Amino acid sequence: MARRQPVYEPDEPMTTTARPMVVAPVATTRTRPSYGGLAARIVLTLLGAAGIIVGAFMNVVNGTAGTDVPFRSLWTTDITGSAFITSLGFAMIVVAAVAVIGMALRPLTSLAGAVGIAGTILFLVAVHRATGSLNGIDVGVWLWGIGSLLCLIGGFLGGRREVVETTNSTVVER
Predict the structure, then answer these.
(1) Could you tell me if 37 and 158 are in contact, meaning their C-beta atoms sit under 8 angstroms apart?
(2) CA 69/CA 136 separation, integer angstroms
């Protein structure tokens, strides 16, 4: 019988051979500016923010200005009397400011547009609950909705992604 070798002792002497080094291409992603898309993004965001801000100072329901409607009107049926800081109009002005600041960060503009649309819809539901109809809706609410939609669309425009293959990024043993 042949003598068994322990696991840690090799049967054959170890030899090492140099393996050739090969440069492997690596796919990287970069964003190239699309100047037309960037211009459309800026224009849509600024128009949307302007619409939201103007709508905040206009009449929104039954001759009541957006800055006189309380923020709590989004979840209650109380649509009367408010200070400027606690008004729904001020909240929409903040949404517009976030959209403009978000031109530097694309998701922030889209988020501001979505919040503006949600606020407009919640306000319309609250008005319908309070009055039984939407007949008293004035132009300010429509400016909120359209401006928020423009901000949402503007948030999706801008640079485009491109996959670029480089040839000297990674060295792989073969």
Answers:
(1) yes
(2) 14
The string of pLDDT tens digits covering residues 100-140 is: 998 887 788 889 999 999 999 999 998 888 888 788 888 99
Q: How many CB atoms lie within 10 A of CB 62?
A: 14
What residues are paired with 163 via a beta bridge? Answer: 29
In sequence order, the β-bridge partners of residue 61 are: 64, 137
Beta carbons of 100 and 45 less than 8 angstroms apart: yes
Radius of gyration of the chain (CA): 30
Tokens, residue 43: 């224009």
CA distances from 99 to 15, 45, 104, 129, 164 (A): 65, 7, 10, 29, 31
Selection from 154, 156, 150 nearest residue 53 by Cα: 150
pTM score, two decimals?
0.70
Q: Under the phi-then-psi rule, with left for phi > 0, alpha for psi from -120 to 50, and beta for the rest, what region is 158?
A: left
Q: Strand 64-65 and strand 21-32: pairing?
A: unpaired
Per residue in 25-75, pLDDT (tens digit) is: 555 666 666 778 788 888 999 999 999 999 999 998 888 888 888 888 888
